[in-house]
Specification:
By secondary structure, the protein is an alpha+beta fold. The chain contains 27 helices and 32 strands. The strands form 7 sheets. It has a 9-stranded mixed beta sheet with strand order 1-2-6-7-8-9-5-4-3. Keywords: Aminoacyl-tRNA synthetase, ATP-binding, Cytoplasm, Ligase, Metal-binding, Nucleotide-binding, Protein biosynthesis, RNA-binding, tRNA-binding, Zinc.
């Protein structure tokens, strides 16, 4: 969709003598005060000429540019709010924070909840990976990590804040008065924006070839059919490039110099490559707008232009700029890695962890291309020191960041061993497609250039796209609704039936200790019962649904509730039979309290253990799944390596201390935006509820997160907790299993019973079991040594007594009356260590055959298969089974015949 001209013809432009012009290069309309201007002052219509513009602002670092922007809008009535993490964990559909508006989607932008302030100002660190392959090549136009400074206003039908004219006026005032840019250099280019299901007209603000800001007016929702529906809530969504503002004011050779300052020179030195002439970089940057990274020819033309401008040999220009681009890539990627890990990303093969691993491995690949042997964590350490004041979380989580990066480098280096087998598989093809390369990267993590030379040597056609990593990232950057929809056990017709019912009053939230209640029947479908209120908790949040009984008071009959489920706000009770109850009847419900209380203890213990794991392992720990049953609790957490025994003990100790501290546990209902601002997005560890008011569970001075389950009111009710199993269930995810309360007593009783049974088997008492086992192990070692000696003697006797027969110079040995595979293998090994030997072992219908290294068994195997043999082998060993019995003589005859024919 394109907006009509009237959307852009603002009173501001008309009153301030701005003229609407059409760019002679791209034919895009733009507004300017410079009546002589013919071009939109954006690339590729022009080169970067901001270097030549007289700007009154002193050089601003990224930090100073951010501060100036926030201060400017704060003075004009905008409330500064802190940025969110670069991991979009308040979103169900997105892994990374790609813009400031993401902070408010979908709940604020949909009108479900109010914004934290209105209007507001923010500077949001953002990560976009679709341009990852272009970083460095364009000298700063493309980055994977950038800060989007923004001011937002949310205009409701009954509350107008400001709209287009005021937004453009703010931009004019900030750029001209705060930065001192001549107003004639300011251009407002008409454009259209879409993102996150919303859309609207926008202005791109350009100065001297550099796009400094985008002013979006979000006024449409895009429905599932692609239709544009006008929004009641109209949103001012701006984005100012903090790094570009710094570059504009500093006028450094590249944007990387403006962003990283002296860190640029530090990286060249640490990586161990010579620095690049700054005049070369400055000229290359000036013409960088001519580069279209998707067009290799445009890069060549750019290099030729630089070569001609400076009078340098084109090979020299290529060599220097390629080296600079790679160092700039390392600068960019290591910052991205640092921010991702600092905000809790755990590298893995799926989800957000996949994207983090992709950036790490691309950085390692670039270091390899530069011929550097520096460890990546050393460069990441420099980024931590550089950004620690801007982003305190990088220093707070320094140990985890460095440990995770080093572990990822070790894993990357181990990939080399997989390369030969991957090449062998791909070599069966005549041509290796892009899809093949992506599949290899997804499955094995091997970059395509590790395969290129060898495949080409074998005559296999392979072309690696320049944007390979961007293609991979694009496939993984959005989530398939990360847990929003819980699985239901209910059939479709029950869901449709329940959706017609009124919401159920949830007595388990009013009193989590209520055991029985009376209610009215409002719906019956077969054995599914819906009441106007209930104390039965429906399955959700990893907690099983309640069981118990429903009593028909009138007919004095009871029905067993075998499960409880939920359809939106309606609770469905599943009975063990179809009831003879009618709509309008009054029933009495009674939950299985012992079972429910076990669930409450395990659910509360889950919150305690999760917070304990964060304290022991680090803030990167995030809940990846959970289940609470009467028998035990299960918590899956993100972590980059196996837990040590000491770490497990510490988590357990922390949890039990919290339990013995008798800490109050209480539910709190709060506006979701207020909760986010107060407690952060970690409240969404168990999932993201889709409601304006969310229910939080607070364990005093220990943990708080969104949760709709049932819990004990004091940690002391848990009794104690024991972690009974810890295992890695997938890359980057560790599972903890634990028991609490009476389930812990059951666990101990079971252990005690097994201990007694073990002692009984070993004919000792439980308190003597360890010493008895040690003695048995010692005796067993002696027996093993003695048995090994006897085996050698036995093998020598067997070998010396075997009488081979010879055919064509080949001796054939037949092992008989030995039914021990280990013994047979040892005898075969000794006999086949000599040349010209074949050894057979025939036991019932199974044949094992081995040969000396100078004899291949392929012909013999082929002949044995012809007579019904199944199985086989390769080279010098085979195992064949026969469905129909074959005598030793028949098998020997086939072997002899094969040897004669082979000769």
């Amino acid at each position: 969709m394109k907006a009509n001209e009237g959307e852009y013809r603002l009173d501001f432009f008309l009153k301030n003598d701005y003229k609407r012009k059409i760019c002679k290069s791209c034919n895009t309309p733009f507004w300017t005060k410079d009546i002589k201007r013919e071009y939109c002052a954006d690339i590729p219509c022009t080169d970067y000429y901001f270097f030549d513009i007289d700007i009154k602002s002193p050089p601003l670092s990224v930090r100073e540019a951010r501060k100036k922007f926030i201060s400017f809008f704060e003075k004009r009535g905008h409330t500064p709010i802190p940025p969110k993490p670069v991991l979009a964990r308040w979103r169900e559909d997105l892994y990374l924070t790609i813009a400031s508006i993401v902070d408010f989607q979908p709940h604020v932008t949909s009108g479900l909840v109010p914004p934290p302030a209105n209007p507001l100002v923010i500077s949001q660190p953002s990560i976009r990976l679709e341009d990852i392959d272009n970083v460095g090549i364009t000298f700063g136009r493309h980055l994977t990590t950038f800060e989007m400074a923004a001011h937002h206003a949310f205009n409701y039908p009954d509350k107008f804040v400001y709209w287009k004219d005021e937004t453009v006026e703010y931009a004019r005032e900030f750029f001209t008065k705060e930065l001192g840019i001549p107003e004639n250099e300011l251009n407002f280019k008409e454009s259209w924006w879409e993102g996150g299901g919303n859309a609207g007209p926008c202005f791109e603000v350009t100065v001297g070839g550099l796009e400094l800001a985008t002013l979006v007016f979000m006024q449409y929702k895009i429905d599932e059919n692609g239709n544009y529906i006008p929004l009641n809530l109209k949103i001012v969504d701006t984005g100012y490039g903090v790094e570009r503002i710094a570059w504009l004011t500093q006028k450094t050779p590249t944007a990387f110099h403006a962003i990283y300052g002296n860190l640029v020179y530090t990286f060249f030195n640490k990586i161990g490559v010579p620095y690049v002439d700054e005049e070369l970089l400055r000229v290359a940057s000036r013409f960088a707008g001519k580069i279209d990274p998707d067009n290799i020819e445009s890069i060549k033309l750019h290099r030729q232009l630089v070569s001609k401008e400076l009078g340098l040999d084109i090979k020299k220009v290529d060599e220097e700029l390629n080296r600079a681009a790679r160092v700039f890539q390392i600068l960019d990627h290591t910052k991205t890695i640092t921010l991702m890990l600092a905000d809790g990303l755990v590298p893995s093969n799926s989800g957000e962890g996949y994207l983090g691993r992709l950036v790490i491995r691309r950085a390692l690949r670039v270091l390899k291309l530069l011929g550097s042997d520096i460890r990546l964590y050393e460069l990441v350490k420099e980024q931590i020191d550089f950004w620690k004041e801007d982003f305190p979380q990088v220093l707070k989580n320094k140990d985890y960041i460095l440990d995770a990066v080093e572990l990822e480098q070790q894993r990357f280096e181990s990939l080399i061993s997989k390369v030969p087998s991957v090449i062998s598989t791909l070599a069966k093809k005549k041509e290796v497609s892009i899809e093949d390369l992506i599949q290899v990267y997804d499955s094995n993590g091997i970059p395509p250039d590790f395969l290129e030379d060898e495949l080409k040597r074998r005559g296999i056609k392979i072309e690696i796209p320049h944007n390979f990593y961007a293609l991979v990232a694009k496939r993984h950057q959005t989530a398939q609704i990360k847990g929003k929809l819980e699985k239901t056990k209910l059939p479709k017709e029950i869901i449709e039936f329940a959706n017609k019912m009124s919401p159920t009053e949830k007595l388990y939230y009013k009193d989590q200790y209520i055991r029985s209640f009376e209610a009215n029947v409002i719906g019956i479908y077969k054995n599914y019962l819906i009441l106007d209120k209930t104390a039965f908790y429906p399955e959700g949040g990893g907690q099983l649904g309640d069981t118990g009984f429903i009593y028909d008071i009138t007919k004095n009959k009871k029905y067993r509730v075998v499960d409880t489920q939920k359809v939106n706000d309606v609770v469905v009770h599943i009975l063990d039979e179809e009831p003879s109850i009618s709509v309008g009847d009054i029933i009495r419900g009674e939950i299985d309290w012992e079972r429910r209380y076990r669930l409450m203890r395990h659910h509360t213990a889950t919150h305690i253990i999760l917070a304990a794991a964060k304290r022991v392992l680090g803030e990167h720990v995030w809940q990846a799944g959970a289940e609470k049953t009467p028998e035990k609790g299960r918590l899956d957490i993100t972590h980059h390596k196996q837990l040590t025994d000491e770490e497990i003990r510490k988590i357990e100790d922390y949890a039990n201390k919290v339990i013995s501290d008798r800490r109050p546990v209480r539910p709190i209902e709060m506006n979701r935006m207020e909760a986010e601002m107060k407690y952060g997005v970690s409240i969404y560890e168990g999932g993201v509820p889709d409601s304006p008011i969310i229910r939080l569970l607070e364990i005093k001075d220990w943990d708080i997160e969104s949760c709709g389950g049932t819990h004990v009111s004091n940690t002391s009710e848990i009794g104690s907790v024991k972690i009974i199993n810890v295992e890695k269930i997938q890359d980057g995810v560790i599972r903890l299993e634990y028991v609490a309360g009476s389930a812990l007593v059951d666990y101990i009783r079971d252990l005690e019973a097994r201990l007694k049974e073990s002692a009984k088997i070993l004919k000792t008492s439980p308190d003597q079991l360890i010493s008895r086992i040690k003695r048995l192990l010692t005796d067993n070692e002696k027996t093993e040594r003695l048995l090994t000696q006897y085996r050698k003697i036995f093998e020598d006797i067997i070998i010396n007594n075997l009488k081979p027969f010879e055919i064509n110079g080949i001796k054939i040995y037949v092992i008989e009356e030995i039914d021990d595979d280990e013994e047979i293998k040892e005898i075969m090994k000794k006999l086949t260590s000599r040349e010209n030997n074949i050894v057979l072992s025939i036991i019932k219908n199974r044949l094992q055959i081995a040969s000396s290294s100078n004899i291949k068994l392929d012909k013999i195997i082929e002949e044995l298969r012809k007579v019904g043999g199944k199985g086989g082998g390769k080279g010098t060993f085979a195992m064949i089974t026969f469905e129909n019995h074959k005598s030793k003589e028949e098998i020997l005859e086939i072997v002899k015949k094969s040897i004669i024919e082979e000769k």
